[in-house]
Amino acid sequence: MFPTVPIRYVEPVYRPPSEAESLILPVTDGCSWNRCTFCEMYTAPEKRFRARDEGEVLESVRLTGERFGSVVRRVFLADGDALVLPTRRLLAILEAIRKHLPAVRRVSSYCLPRNLRRKSVGELRELASAGLAIAYVGAESGDDEVLERVHKGETFASTLAALDKLAQAGITRSVMILNGLAGPALSLRHAENSARLVNASPPEYLATLVVSFPLGEQRFREAFPGWRPLSQRELFVEMERFIAGLELERTVFRSDHASNWLILKGMLGADKARLLGELHQAIDDPEAAPLRPAWARGL
């Protein structure tokens, strides 16, 4: 969208699907945790974690503003967990965005729950007032055993604490759960406890995608003995258990990532019965269900 933007990128660059038209502004490179065995996003040597030089980031914002100040409407702070930065630095970046990109209406970031332990609700409110609108939280699972097996470095309790802090600060939360992460042995526990987590602090947005390993499964399997990918039907059964366990009233739900066989969209809870019906059809009669063909899954 911004072909001559004066920002230094370290490839590959990742962002949530809903940030497709956003300006990607790296404030860190890589991920400060980077131990999750299911994640391949920041494993390349050039993606080793570091905070970007503050002067470089602020100058990038200034120069981008000179060229696109009236065009840019959204900014996504990259890479894996911008909120690891001290609040003072984040406020300086948000102030620069307000000053040099006056048309911006939304700033967002990925968020590791662990990085909110050192930030108070008051600090998060400052960030919200300065323009941080959305935090994308990769919860992955609400089951502590699954989280330990995949080296997530989080628990049900730590993720819940982060979601509650964001809510108290008025920052919109978009939560992601990984369908198939637990393998067959822990599948239903994974579904039930993930629903329990989401119910405990209902987010504004909720999404699921199917765990996948374009670079191979060896690293993941070494840390998770006995794991195997779920079959298509097992994925649907796990999703049915997850949706059935949700007790939400006003959460936008999306399961339309390229990894998903069955596209599901709706508002929870208004559309819960319809979503469960679509899952039941996919479980009972997959040939009649509108499944995405394998070639289109883009994995």
Describe this structure as you would to a colleague:
With 299 residues, this protein is of the alpha/beta class. It folds into two domains: 1-111, Transcription Regulator spoIIAA, CATH 3.30.750; 138-299, no CATH class. Helices cover 35% and strands 17% of the residues. The chain contains nine helices and ten strands. Strand 5 (106-111), helix 3 (121-130) and strand 6 form a beta-alpha-beta unit. Helix 2 runs parallel beside helix 3, helix 3 (121-130) packs across helix 5 (156-169) and helix 6 packs parallel to helix 8. 40% of the residues are buried.
Describe the secondary structure blueprint for this structure.
Layout: E1 23-26, E2 28-29, E3 50-51, H1 54-68, E4 74-78, H2 87-100, E5 106-111, H3 121-130, E6 132-140, H4 144-149, H5 156-169, E7 172-179, H6 187-200, E8 205-210, H7 218-223, H8 232-245, E9 251-255, E10 264-268, H9 272-284
Parallel strand pairs: 1-4, 4-5, 5-6, 6-7, 7-8, 8-9
Antiparallel strand pairs: 2-3, 9-10
Helix pairs in contact: 1-2, 2-3, 3-5, 6-8, 8-9
